[in-house]
Amino acid sequence: MADQFFGKTVEEYILQLKKFNLDLKFVMELKVQGRLLRWPQDIAGNLDNNVIRLYPGHIKLISEGKRIGDYRWAGYLDYHQQTVNHLLLDNLLTKFQMFEQARHSLSCGMGVLNSAIKAIEAKDHYTKGHSDRVSQLAMKISDMFDVDYSEYDIEIASKLHDIGKIGVSEIILCKPGLLTEQEITEIRKHPEIGANILKPLPIFEHLVPVIRHHHEKIDGTGYPDGLAGDDIPLLSRIIAVADTFDALTSNRPYRQAMSTEKALGVIAGVKGSQLDARIVDTFLSLREHLLTAAN
Ligand SMILES: [Fe+2]
Question: In whole angstroms, what is the distance from residue 252 CA to residue 177 CA?
Answer without folding.
Answer: 10
